[in-house]
Amino acid sequence: TSHNMDTAPKCQNNENEVPEDKVKPDPLDPKNIANSILRLEELKKATLANTKHQHDSGEVLEQALSILRHTESIISSIRRASVGMVSEDIEAQTMISSVEDTPKAVKEWLAATFTKQIFGRRQTVEPPKFRSIVQAVRASMYVDKITRKTSQAPVDVSPAARMLQEDLNNWDIDVFKYDSLTSSKPFRGLFGEVLQRYGLVKRFKINLHHLENYCALVENGYNLHGNPYHNAIHGADVLITTHNLISSTGFAAWMTDIEILALLFSAMIHDVEHTGTTNNFHICTSSPLTIMYNDRSVLENHHISSAYRYLDQPEANPFEKLSKDDFREMRGIAVEAVLGTDMSAHFTQIKNMQNALFNPSTTKKDIAAFFSVNRNTAMTLILHCADISHPTKTWDLHKKWTDNLMEEFFCQGDKETALGLPNSPLCNRAETLVPESQVGFIDFIIVPSMNLLGDMFDALLLVQNEEATAAGNKPSNYKKVDRPWDNRLAENRKRWKELVTPKDETPAVNGRIKEEEAESVQEESKSPSRPSSQRNSGTEPPRPNSKSQRHSPSEPTRSLNGGPKLGSNGATPTNNEQSVSVEATP
User: Fold this and answer.
1) Is 76 strand, coil or helix?
2) What is the mean pLDDT of residues 21-31?
3) Do the Cβ atoms of 204 and 322 come closer than 8 Å?
4) Among 105, 30, 102, 98, which residue's Cα sits nearest to residue 68?
5) What is the mean pLDDT of the chain?
6) Choosing from 53, 55, 70, 230, which is the catalytic residue?
7) Which of 260, 272, 127, 167 is nearest to 214 (CA)?
8) How large is the average pLDDT for residues 91-115?
9) Residue 57 CB: number of other CB atoms within 10 A?
10) Predicted pLDDT of residue 87
11) Is 230 a catalytic residue?
C-alpha cells in the first residue's frame, strides 16, 4: 500500500488520461474551422473526380462547406464582440482607477458595481459567453398616444394618494409620502392608474381584479426581506420615473401598445424579491440563487423569474387576454429590460448607444435604422436610467434614498464580517465616506447616463420630424426635450461636495453625515452675513487654491449636435477634478 501511494501520483500512463495527441480539438476554434474547410474542399475535389455518384456527393459537400463557412463568420463575429466587451470593461476600470482626488474605496465600488469585476476574486481577461445571439427585429408604426386621457383609477385609494396619482408627471413626486398614504401598498392603485393613462386596460382587456391581486403579490415580494432600499417604494419610484421619461419626452408616441405595457411592467417588477445584497455577495457565498443562475446576473434573473411565477397564482394574471404573440413579445422585452438593470453591464450598455448615435460616420438615416431595429436597446436604457435616477430628484428625496441605500450596504457588510469575508466596497460602517461616494456616483455614472438618455430622445424626435417632412406631412414643432435632471444633478453634487471631509480631518462617525450637520450647512448657505468662502464644508473655511474653489458645477456641456461631450466609455476620461464634474467635459 505504501508503495502504491508513493508511485501513483508519478504514473504517466493512467488509463483514464487521454494522450495529448488524441485530445479532441475545439470545434469552435477559428483555426480548426479553417482546417475543416480545407479538408472538405479537398474531399469535394476527390469526390467529383469519380464518376459514380459524383453529382449527389458534390451537392452534399457543397452544402456542408456553405454551412461551415457561415459558422466561421458567426464565430468570428462573436469573438470580436466578446473581446470588445471585455476591453470596454478594462477601459472603464482603468479610467476609474486613474482619476485623482477620489478615495480608493469609491474607485473600488465603482469598478465592482458597474463592470464585470468580481470583488475578492482573481480576474481574468476571458471573453464572456453569450446567452444568445438572437436579435428580434420588430416592425411598427408611429402612433399618436400623447393625447390619451386619464381615466378613473381602477382601485380606490385615499384622497391624498389619489391627488398624488394625478400629479404623476411631476418629476419630483414624493413617493415616500405616497407609500405612507397607501399603507405601504403602492402598486395596487399606481400601476392601474399608469396603464389607464395609456389606454392599455381597455386595449388588452386587463382584468382589474386580477391586476389588484397581482400587484399585491409584487408588493409582498418586494417586502420579503425587509430591505431599507430595494423595496416596494423603490419599485414605485422607478415605475413613476419610467412613465415620466416616456410621456414627457414624447417617446411613447414611437412605441407600440405592447411595448409600453412591457416597459411599465418591467419597471414595476424589476427588483421584486431583492435580497438586499449584491450579485457579488451571492457569487462569493455560493448562494442557491447563484447556483441556479450560474453566476450570471443572479438577482436580475431572479426578479424576472419571480414576476412570471406570480402570474401562475389563482386569479392573479391580468394579462390572460393577451394574444400569444403579444404575450411572447411582452415577455421578450421584459426579460431583456430587467436583465439590462445589471449594473455590471453599465459601461457596455452606455458605449453601445453612444457609438450608435455619435459615431462620426453615422448619418440620420443610420440613426433611423438603428431605432427601427434596436427598439429593445432603447427601452432597456430607459429602465436602467430610471433605476439609478434618485440623484436627479430633489435633495431631500435623494438624501433619503442615499441613507437607505447605505444602510442596506452596511447590513451586507455586517453579514460579510460575520462570515469572515472581506467587506465589499462601501459596506464597512466604520470606514465608508458617503459624500465622496455620491460625488463619484454622480460624476462617473449618473451624468453620462442621463445626458446620453436625453440625446437619445432628441435624436429620435429629430428623425421623426424629418421623416414627416419627407413624407409631405406637416412636421411637429421640433425642440429638444426638457431635462429636469440637469439642475438637480448640479445642485445635489454641490451639496455633497460641501459635505466632503477634508483630507486632514477625521471622517464623520461611520462615514455618514449626520442629518443635523446637513441642516446646518443648509442654514449657513442661506445666511447672507457669512462670506461664501466659509460655506465650503460646514466645518472649516476651504483651503486656498483648492480644486473645489476653482470649479463651479453648471449645466452639462452639449456638443454641436445637442449631445454631451462624453468620453468613449460613457464617462469622463481625464484625470483632474474638472473631468468628473457635471459638465462632463472630455
Assistant:
1) helix
2) 54
3) yes
4) 30
5) 74
6) 230
7) 272
8) 65
9) 16
10) 54
11) yes
